[in-house]
Write a structure and sequence with these properties.
heterodimer, A: alpha+beta, seven-stranded antiparallel beta sheet, 10 helices, 23 strands, B: alpha+beta, nine-stranded mixed beta sheet, eight-stranded mixed beta sheet, 27 strands, 39% strand
Chain lengths: 458, 472
C-alpha cells in the first residue's frame, strides 16, 4: 500500500524535475538542472514521561542553471508550478551576478553504471504513529525497569521515507528512494551526588526491536556511577568502541577525502595518493551501494549512479571522492558522492560527501582487543566535541564521559570524564588493531579500534 | 495569511482541539562562499510553511505543510489531531497550554539603515571579497582563505485560540573569514566573524570593516605558526567575551531549560534560590538586547506568541529562574518566560534560549590580566559541547600564555574542559564591557532542531582552576 504511495511520489517528482528543467531552458538558461525532494517523517520523542509527536513532509525544488558560462542556484519549499517559475527566475538572477568560475565546465553528463536503491522494507513503510508511540514507550519503560537509579531519559523513534528526483539538460533524469527507522535513548543515572549518562541507538532499513536499546543505555549509565578520576595526563594506548570512534572517523575522512577540499588546499590527503596514510591494517571503503546502508541510493544528488570506492587500501590512499564539479577539474568521472543535506536536500547545492563508510574489520572482538592492552584507556559510548575537531589539520580534543582504565588486559574501573587529544591523521599511522565487531551506524559500518599515542587527561 | 492561520485554528477547534496554535514562517535566506577570490557558492532560497500545534486530551500533536492552500491547511490540522489523539492515551504526564499573556502586534520590525533586502547580491559579494583581499595581502604562508556571508530575513506570523495575533520581521546578517596557513605538515588557522541582527551599515565602521576582519584572521593564523601547545592540566584562565557566552549558553543555560528540569535531567532540579556560583557570576537570557549597543539576535516574540523580556537565570551566583514554554511552565506551576522556539515550520516549539550572556563586572581588561597573573588567556569560540551533568568541552579560537600579567606566547589548540558548576564557583571577577554576538552561521542545536539563531556574550571573566586539554 505505502510502496505504491512511494511509487507515485517518485513519478510525480520526476515529472516535476523534468518540467522545471525545461522551464529553465525556455527562460534562457544554457544548461539547467532541477532537483525535487519529498520526505515524510514521523517523529515521537519522550522526555522522561512527556511525549512530543510530529508528522509532516518537507518538500521543495532546487534549480541550478548555467547562464553565460556562470552557475546560479535557487530553491523554494513547496512543489507548485508557479513556485518553480519563481525559483528559475531567481537562479538566473544569481547566475547573472556571479563571477565566472574558471573551474566550472558544465553540468554532468549521464554516466552509465549499474546501481540500485537500498533495502526498502514494507514494515517500515507501514509503520504508523501508533506503532512509533508504542516503540518509544517500550524503549523508555525497559530503560527505567533496568535499574532504580535511572532517574530520567530522552528517547525517540523516527521513521523517514524519502524520494528525490533530478533532471538536467544533458540527459540525466533519475530518482531514488529510501526508508529507514531510527530509535535511541539517552539515560541519566543518579546515585548520591553523582550523575552519569549512557546512550544507545539503532538505525536500520528493517524493522527492529527497540527493547534492548533501553536496557543497554541504562546499563551504560549505571556502570559509570563507580567512576574515579584519572588524576593525570598521559600519552597512552586508547581502545575505542565502534560507536565512540565512528563520528570522529567520519568527520575526518569526509573532509580529507573530499576532492574539492584537496583541490583547495584544505585536505590532509592532498598530494598523498598512493602514499601510506595509515598502518596496513586500515582499509576503508565508501559504499554508496551497500544494501543496508542508510545513505544508499540509486543515484546521488546530481543523478549520477552511486558506487563502491576503496579510499584507503591496506594503509595506502587510493583516491579522493568526487562530485561532478571536482571531477571535471581533474578530467575524471564523478564517483557519485554529490550530496545535499536531508531532510530538505532541495535547499542546497550538491557538495562532496561520504555515503556509507566501511572500515574493514579485523579478527578480534572488543573483549579480546582489551585483553592485549598492557596499559591504556577504553573509550565507550558517545564522545563530546567531535563537531569541533579541526578536520583539515586533524587536531582534535574530545571529552569521553564513559571511559575506563585498562591494565594488564583487564578493565580496572570507570573514569570521570577524560579529555582525549591528538592528531587523527597521525593516529591513523598508529592503528594498533581493528576489531571484528562491525556495527551499522548512520555513518556506515564501523568496528572498534585501538590507536596509539594520544594524550588522555582528566 | 492571517486568514489562513485563522482557518487552521478554527478547524482544529472544530475537530475537538482544546487549544490550537498556528504559525507561518516566510524566510528568505542567502549564503555566499568564496575560496580566495573565487565565489564558489551562492545559495538563495525562500522557505515558507505553516505549522499547527494542537492540544488534546493531555497531549499535543504537531504537523506542518509547505502547500499554502486552505485544503492543505485543513489536512495538516487533521494530521495534528490524529497524532494528538494517538499520544493522549500513551503520555505519562498530561500536557496543557496553561495561561499566558496574549499579545497583538503587526509587522514589528528592527529599524536599520541598510536592510539586506534593499541590496543586490553583488554588494554582499564585494563585502566578502574585500575581507578575502585584505587577508591575502597581510597573511603569511597562506594555504587557503574562506570567506562566508549569510543573511536571512522575512516574516513570522502567529495566532492561537486565546486571541494572540502577532507578526514580526526577523533579520540576521553575518560575515566570516577563515585563513589557513601552512608550514611543512603543520596547518594552522585564524578566523574572525561579525554577525547579528543589524543592517549592512555596520560594515562601514572601521572596527567591523571587512578589511579589519581580513587583517585579524591573517594575523591570528600567522601567529599560530609559531605557537606552542597548551600544557595540559589546571590553569588560571582569562576567558574572553565570546567564549564566556558559549559557557553561559551551552553549559549553564541548557541546564535551566524547563523541559530538562521537568524530565529530571538537569543537575539544577530543586536548586532554585540555591547558591551555585561566586557573586561574580550572573547570567541573563533576553529576547531583545539593545540593538543600538549590542549585536545579538533580535526576537520580540517567541514561537508561542509570547512577548520576550529579560530573564535573569543566575543572580550573583544564585539560581533565580528556569526557562519555560507554556507547557513546561504549566507543568511546573510557573509562568512562561517566552522561551518557546522552533527552528522552522518542520518542528513544534520547544524550550530554547534567546540571547544568553554573563552580566559585566567592574574590571578593565588590563586589570583582569593582572588578576589572572599567570595562566591562559582564551579568546573566541570554535564551538563547544556540554552534557546533561554539566560537563563541558569548549574550544577557544586562539589563546596566549600569560605570565605575571604579560602576554608571553601564542597557543595553538586551546580546549577547556570541566563542569560548569565548578567553573561558576571559580569565577573571580568580570570586566566592565559587555559584548553580545549572534549570526547566520553556527547556531544552537537541540532535539534535532538546528541551527537556531541565538545570541551569546558577556564580559571577560577571570576564573581559577580551569582544566585545559591538549597534546603533551
Amino acid at each position: 500500500m505505502m510502496a505504491k504511495t512511494l511509487d507515485s511520489t517518485q513519478d510525480e517528482l520526476t515529472t516535476l524535475a523534468e518540467l522545471g528543467m525545461k522551464k529553465a531552458l525556455s527562460a534562457g538558461a544554457e544548461e539547467a538542472e532541477t532537483f525535487v525532494s519529498w520526505m515524510d517523517t514521523i517523529s515521537i520523542n519522550i522526555k522522561k514521561n512527556i511525549i512530543e509527536a510530529r508528522r509532516g513532509s518537507p518538500a521543495g525544488v532546487g534549480v541550478r542553471v548555467v547562464w553565460n558560462g556562470k552557475v546560479g542556484f535557487a530553491a523554494q519549499s513547496g512543489t507548485d508550478k508557479a513556485g518553480i517559475e519563481r525559483v528559475v527566475e531567481e537562479a538566473l538572477a544569481v547566475a547573472k551576478i556571479r563571477p565566472p568560475d574558471p573551474d566550472f565546465e558544465q553540468l554532468p553528463d549521464p554516466i552509465s553504471r549499474p546501481s540500485k536503491d537500498g533495502i526498502i522494507h514494507d514494515a517500515i513503510l507501514e509503520f504508523s504513529e501508533k506503532d512509533a508511540l508504542e516503540a518509544v514507550n517500550n524503549l523508555a519503560q525497559t530503560a527505567f525497569a533496568q535499574d532504580k537509579r535511572i532517574r530520567s531519559l530522552f528517547g525517540a523513534v523516527e521513521v523517514h521515507k524519502g524520494v528525490q528526483a533530478v533532471a538536467n539538460s544533458r540527459g540525466i533524469s533519475d530518482s531514488g528512494r529510501s526508508a529507514f527507522i531510527d530509535g535511541g535513548v539517552y539515560c541519566v543515572a543518579v546515585e548520591a551526588q553523582k550523575q552519569k549518562t549512557g546512550s544507545e541507538q539503532i538505525v536500520s532499513r528493517k524493522l527492529k526491536d527497540f527493547s534492548q536499546v533501553g536496557e543497554r543505555a541504562a546499563e551504560r549509565a549505571i556502570k559509570m556511577l563507580e567512576a574515579k578520576p584519572l588524576g593525570r595526563s598521559m600519552k597512552t594506548t586508547t581502545v575505542w568502541e565502534n560507536v565512540s570512534i565512528a563520528h570522529l572517523l567520519r568527520g575526518m575522512l569526509n573532509t580529507a577525502s573530499n576532492a574539492q577540499n584537496v583541490q583547495e588546499g584544505k585536505s590532509f590527503f592532498r598530494g598523498k595518493i598512493n602514499e601510506k596514510v595509515a598502518t596496513d591494517k586500515v582499509t576503508i571503503v565508501d559504499d554508496g551501494q551497500l544494501p543496508e546502508g542508510i545513505f544508499t541510493m540509486k543515484v546521488d544528488a546530481e543523478g549520477i549512479p552511486t558506487q563502491t570506492t576503496t579510499v584507503i587500501d591496506k594503509g595506502i590512499l587510493k583516491t579522493h571522492l568526487y562530485d561532478s564539479y571536482a571531477a571535471q577539474r581533474e578530467d575524471k568521472e564523478s564517483s557519485g558522492n554529490a550530496k545535499r543535506e536531508w531532510p530538505e536536500p532541495f535547499l542546497t547545492t550538491p557538495s562532496v560527501s561520504t555515503t556509507n563508510l566501511l572500515v574493514k574489520p579485523g579478527s578480534k572482538n572488543l573483549q579480546e582487543m582489551i585483553g592485549e592492552v598492557e596499559e591504556g584507556i577504553l573509550i565507550t559510548d558517545m564522545v563530546m566535541g567531535v563537531g569541533h575537531a579541526n578536520t583539515i589539520t586533524g587536531e582534535f580534543s574530545v571529552v569521553a564521559p564513559s571511559a575506563f582504565q585498562v591494565e594488564q588486559g583487564e578493565i580496572l574501573h570507570p573514569l570521570e570524564p577524560v579529555t582525549v587529544a591528538g592528531n587523527f591523521f597521525q593516529a591513523l599511522k598508529r592503528v594498533v588493531r581493528i576489531g571484528s565487531d562491525t556495527r551499522l551506524l548512520t555513518v556506515g559500518k564501523i568496528p572498534s579500534m585501538i590507536l596509539g599515542g594520544l594524550t588522555v587527561s582528566g | 495569511m492571517f486568514d489562513l492561520l485563522k482557518h487552521g485554528v478554527k478547524k482544529g477547534e472544530e475537530l475537538g482541539g482544546e487549544f490550537v496554535e498556528a504559525r507561518f514562517d516566510d524566510l528568505m535566506v542567502r549564503e555566499l562562499r568564496a575560496e580566495k577570490r573565487v565565489v564558489k557558492d551562492i545559495k538563495s532560497f525562500r522557505r515558507r510553511g505553516i505549522g499547527v500545534n494542537l492540544y488534546y486530551g493531555g497531549a499535543t500533536g504537531y504537523s506542518f505543510t509547505v502547500d499554502l492552500s486552505r485544503q492543505a491547511v485543513t489536512k495538516t490540522v487533521a494530521r495534528a489531531m490524529k497524532i494528538a489523539e494517538a499520544s493522549s492515551g500513551a503520555a505519562g504526564i498530561e500536557v496543557e497550554p496553561g495561561e499566558a499573556p496574549t499579545s497583538k502586534s503587526k509587522k514589528l520590525e528592527l529599524r536599520v539603515k541598510k536592510h539586506p533586502r534593499d541590496f543586490q547580491l553583488g554588494f554582499k559579494k564585494d563585502l566578502m571579497l574585500r575581507a578575502v583581499d585584505s587577508a591575502q595581502e597581510q597573511g603569511q604562508k597562506i594555504s587557503s582563505i574562506t570567506g562566508r556571508y549569510g543573511e536571512f530575513y522575512g516574516e513570522k506570523l502567529f495566532l492561537n485560540s486565546a486571541g494572540t495575533r502577532v507578526s514580526w520581521h526577523p533579520l540576521v546578517v553575518d560575515l566570516r573569514l577563515r585563513v589557513v596557513s601552512k608550514e611543512g605538515d603543520l596547518l594552522v588557522d585564524g578566523a574572525d566573524a561579525f554577525g547579528g541582527s543589524f543592517g549592512l551599515e555596520v560594515f562601514d565602521s572601521r572596527e567591523h570593516s571587512p578589511e579589519a576582519m581580513g587583517q585579524n584572521a591573517a594575523q591570528w593564523a600567522a601567529e599560530k605558526l609559531e605557537a606552542k601547545a597548551v600544557p595540559p592540566g589546571k590553569h588560571r584562565a582569562l576567558c574572553e567575551n565570546r567564549l564566556v557566552g558559549v559557557l553561559a549558553h551551552e553549559s549553564f543555560g541548557h541546564l535551566t531549560e524547563g523541559d530538562f528540569v521537568m524530565a529530571g535531567m538537569s543537575p539544577l532540579v530543586g536548586k532554585l534560590g540555591k547558591r551555585l556560583g561566586s557573586e561574580h557570576a550572573t547570567i541573563i537570557d533576553e529576547g531583545t538586547p539593545d540593538p543600538e549597543k549590542y549585536h545579538g539576535f533580535w526576537m520580540p516574540f517567541d514561537d508561542q506568541g509570547v512577548k520576550t523580556t529579560e530573564i535573569m537565570i543566575l543572580n550573583k551566583g544564585r539560581l533565580s529562574k528556569y526557562l519555560h514554554s507554556r507547557e513546561t511552565a504549566t507543568l511546573m506551576r510557573s509562568q512562561t518566560t517566552g522561551n518557546a522556539r522552533a527552528v522552522n515550520y518542520n518542528f513544534p516549539p520547544i524550550v530554547r534560549m534567546r540571547n544568553t550572556y554573563f552580566a559585566p563586572g567592574e574590571l578593565s581588561v588590563e586589570e583582569a590580566l593582572e588578576e589572572l597573573d599567570t595562566g591562559i588567556y582564551a579568546i573566541g569560540t570554535a564551538g563547544g559541547q556540554a552534557s546533561a551533568d554539566g560537563t563541558f568541552m569548549f574550544k577557544a579560537r586562539r589563546g596566549y600564555y600569560v605570565e605575571e600579567g604579560e602576554k608571553k606566547h601564542t597557543l595553538r589548540e586551546v580546549t577547556l574542559t570541566g563542569n560548569i558548576l565548578t567553573f561558576l564557583k571559580n569565577v573571580e571577577g568580570g570586566t566592565s564591557e559587555l559584548m553580545i554576538r549572534s549570526g547566520y552561521f553556527g547556531g544552537c542545536g537541540k532535539g534535532g532542531q538546528h541551527p537556531l539563531p541565538v545570541g551569546l556574550g558577556g564580559p571577560h571573566l577571570v576564573v581559577s582552576e580551569v582544566q585545559f586539554g591538549g597534546e603533551k
